[in-house]
């Protein structure tokens, strides 16, 4: 620990520490040693915290389900929370969530404030999951006090230590008011004042540069530059494995307008290079292991991603972007609003949207007609069960109707079904035959993302490339049936990312 020399800063630090009435590390202590570490620096009105997780060789294997640091602030001081530019406001107090002041909704995290201490919050929903953010955006969040111009901010200058890659969601985010200290901390990453040998400084880290291009000759003949693509290094594994990877460090960046990327400050180790590109399905992985050594700079040159594609697009629904954000997101029920998430980009975070499916489709399920329907209005953002009275749900079958004039009986067609999230769900797919004894295709039971109840718009990405022989199609009207067979509870659901029907290969080499 470094010394504090300046007394005025010491005073401020004491205040910070007093605010941390509770600092708890929820850890399975039997399997690892994790003394929390603090660094105090002259002239810096904050406290740096880190932990070293060490599993000694003679310790048994263990699952580390979750690691959390929790700060409990004095509620009379801190009332205003800021999580992002759009998600910020005066918050209810914890007592407002008790049984006298609120009503528990479909799960214990969500309450309706019926008699809050601050009357202006009456009638609002409160649920901590409405304030979550993706790892990549989770850089700054905190609280502002009314008096003393005091704030409490958690700044995360790098998310290399977080599990699951850039899109994994957790309970926090970033905001405007303290953007200056945020940028300073990001600029000075990796910190040069730590003394632990487990934390490599800048000169002990490596760099990987390259350019990513996309080849999809059914779209254009030329190679395309992968603009704003996510490119990252994570532990070796299959393409896309970074989504569920929790043991190694991950280093992500986004390409520029012409596909260039530079991944800096990578800790020494062995990695694979992964990517995904907005507008294209699938996962890229470079078929080389990349070994980073202290101080090295690896130039990969031009890399080409061939996204899955077997033939020309006959029709498509949505945008391949790993979320359901472009689909129809209904207005929330008036009685279940949380005014913190009224911004258009946060609309999906409102409480109770899943129930609205049964309002829009009280009798029959969703039917989407290619050519006349519009996915932003006619494709519900989540494939949820429908209410069937008496607190029961029934499975739902969505139909996609489309016209094919030219059917190649012997051709090989492909349905690209990209799923943005799944929770205890199963999607069965039928082509023109809704009552087949066995489904033509099933995803089988998939997912624990719990994305509907957690007010997310995506969970883990899954892509199914379903081969369909031409004789399954008719000249004229055709229907694809998507049945979500699980309906034990209202949150058994999938979110689609994008669906495309491809005709038989028509490229001449
Ligand atoms: C540490 O980094 C800061 C900027 O982030 C720089 O001003 C300072 O000179 C560095 N110190 C050393 C010892 O390299
Ligand atoms: C890459 O690393 C993985 C895991 O360490 C290993 O199983 C695999 O054989 C390596 N591949 C190559 C091409 O070296
Ligand atoms: C689809 O609906 C959205 C939202 O109403 C609208 O902005 C868009 O222009 C529509 N697209 C087409 C092709 O009509
Ligand atoms: C609802 O439950 C009641 C009482 O168990 C039963 O009489 C009624 O038939 C049920 N209605 C439906 C639609 O299942």
TrEMBL record:
Keywords: Lyase, Membrane, Secreted, Signal, Transmembrane, Transmembrane helix. Its main location: secreted. Residues 227-299, 313-501 form the Rhamnogalacturonan lyase domain. It is an enzyme of class 4 (lyase). Gene3D superfamilies: 2.70.98.10, Carboxypeptidase-like, regulatory domain, Galactose-binding domain-like. The keyword Repressor does not apply. This is rhamnogalacturonan endolyase. It comes from Hibiscus sabdariffa (roselle).
């Amino acid at each position: 620990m470094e010394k504090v020399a300046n007394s005025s800063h010491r005073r401020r630090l004491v205040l910070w520490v007093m605010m941390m009435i509770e600092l708890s590390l929820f850890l399975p202590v039997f399997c690892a040693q994790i003394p929390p570490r603090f660094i105090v620096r002259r002239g810096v009105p904050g406290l740096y915290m880190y932990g070293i997780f060490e599993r000694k060789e003679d310790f048994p294997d263990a699952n580390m389900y979750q690691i959390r640091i929790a700060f409990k602030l004095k509620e009379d001081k801190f009332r205003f929370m800021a999580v992002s530019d759009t998600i910020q406001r005066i918050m209810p107090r914890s007592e407002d969530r008790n049984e006298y002041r609120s009503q528990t909704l479909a799960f214990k995290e969500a309450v309706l404030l019926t008699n809050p201490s601050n009357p202006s919050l009456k009638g609002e929903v409160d649920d901590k999951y409405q304030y979550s953010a993706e790892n990549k955006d989770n850089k700054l969040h905190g609280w502002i006090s009314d008096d003393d111009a005091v704030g409490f901010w958690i700044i995360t200058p790098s998310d290399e230590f977080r599990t699951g890659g850039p899109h994994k969601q957790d309970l926090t985010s970033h905001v405007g008011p303290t953007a200056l200290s945020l940028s300073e901390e990001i600029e000075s990453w990796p910190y040069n004042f730590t003394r632990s040998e487990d934390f490599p400084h800048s000169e002990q880290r490596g760099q990987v540069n390259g350019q990513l291009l996309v080849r999809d000759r059914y779209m254009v003949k030329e190679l395309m530059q992968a603009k704003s693509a996510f490119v990252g290094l994570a532990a070796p594994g299959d393409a896309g494995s970074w989504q569920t990877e929790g043991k190694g460090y991950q280093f992500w960046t986004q390409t520029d307008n012409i596909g260039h990327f530079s991944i800096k400050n990578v800790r020494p180790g062995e990695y694979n290079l992964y990517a995904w590109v907005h507008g294209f399905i699938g996962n890229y992985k470079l078929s080389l292991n990349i070994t980073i050594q202290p101080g090295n700079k690896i130039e990969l040159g031009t890399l080409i991603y061939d996204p899955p594609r077997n033939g020309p697009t006959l029709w498509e629904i949505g945008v391949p972007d790993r979320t359901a954000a472009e689909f129809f997101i209904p207005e929330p029920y008036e009685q279940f609003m949380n005014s913190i998430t009224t911004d258009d980009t946060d609309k999906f975070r409102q409480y109770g949207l899943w129930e609205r499916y049964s309002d829009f489709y009280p009798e029959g399920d969703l039917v989407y007609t290619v050519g006349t329907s519009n996915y932003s209005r006619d494709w519900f953002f989540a494939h949820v069960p429908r209410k069937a009275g008496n607190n029961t749900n029934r499975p739902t079958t969505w139909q996609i109707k489309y016209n094919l004039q030219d059917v190649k009986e012997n051709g090989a067609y492909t349905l690209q079904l990209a799923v943005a999230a799944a929770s205890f769900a199963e999607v069965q797919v039928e082509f023109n035959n809704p009552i087949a004894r066995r489904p033509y295709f099933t995803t089988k039971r998939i997912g624990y993302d719990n994305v509907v109840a957690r007010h997310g718009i995506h969970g883990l990405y899954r892509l199914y490339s379903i081969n369909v022989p031409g004789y399954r199609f008719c000249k004229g009207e055709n229907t694809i049936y998507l049945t979500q067979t699980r309906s034990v509870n209202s949150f058994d659901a999938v979110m689609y990312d994008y669906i495309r029907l491809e005709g038989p290969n028509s490229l001449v080499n």
